[in-house]
Design goal:
Blueprint: E1 8-9, E2 13-16, H1 23-30, H2 33-37, H3 48-64, E3 68-74, E4 80-90, E5 95-102, H4 111-126, E6 131-137, H5 141-149, E7 153-164, E8 167-177, H6 178-182
Helix pairs in contact: 1-3
């Protein structure tokens, strides 16, 4: 069992564990068809019930040490902008999958990049992971640009790897190793 992750603070953001009070904002933002359409695992429609269930699942994953999930909150506004986290944490292989989404009203403001960089630091320095990787639908190149800005390398494309909205989709794979993060260049 693992303790709850600490709050992570960046220049503009507070990253903290999601709480039930976040459910209305999560449902509103994740309920946007653009969010579902650009992510691998967010269903559409997405309502308050799904948000409540997801928050309960997150709590269990955090307790088990298999997830470290954070609500992305504006430090000055207190508004929820999205969610980010490390999932499928495996101690045996010292790796985790990075996933995130930012609500459409907050796109193109650098919040995803700021949050990703903070979670990378937490994963490598605090959790002691060796590898952090991410998948995204190739039809969502903005997600790839966020990963590139945080020096997470493009490793390849898995062709028709997932079925989304009844169609097989390609996903891109990005990854970064601890030594690359701690000694970039």
């Amino acid at each position: 069992m693992t303790e709850c992750p600490p709050d992570l603070i960046t220049r503009r953001l507070l990253l903290r564990i999601p709480v039930l009070q976040d459910a209305p904002d999560i449902a509103r933002l994740a309920g946007d068809p653009e969010i579902s359409g650009n992510t691998l695992e967010i269903p559409y429609p997405y309502d308050h019930r799904i948000a409540h269930e997801w928050i309960a699942e997150v709590s269990e994953g955090v307790k088990a040490g298999t997830e470290m999930i954070f609500a992305v909150i504006g430090r000055n506004t207190g508004e929820l902008y999205g969610v980010i986290g490390l999932m499928e944490i495996t101690r045996e292989h010292s790796r985790a999958k990075l996933g995130y989404w930012i609500g459409r009203p907050y796109w193109n403001q650098g919040y995803a990049t700021e949050a990703v960089c903070a979670v990378l630091d937490y994963g490598f320095r605090v959790l002691g992971l060796n590898r952090i990787y991410a998948f995204y639908l190739t039809r969502n190149p903005a997600s790839g640009r966020v990963l590139d800005k945080c020096s997470i390398r493009h490793e390849g494309v898995l062709r028709q790897h997932v079925r989304k909205e009844g169609t097989f989709q390609d996903i891109a794979v990005h990854g970064i190793l601890k030594y690359e993060y701690l000694s970039p260049g």
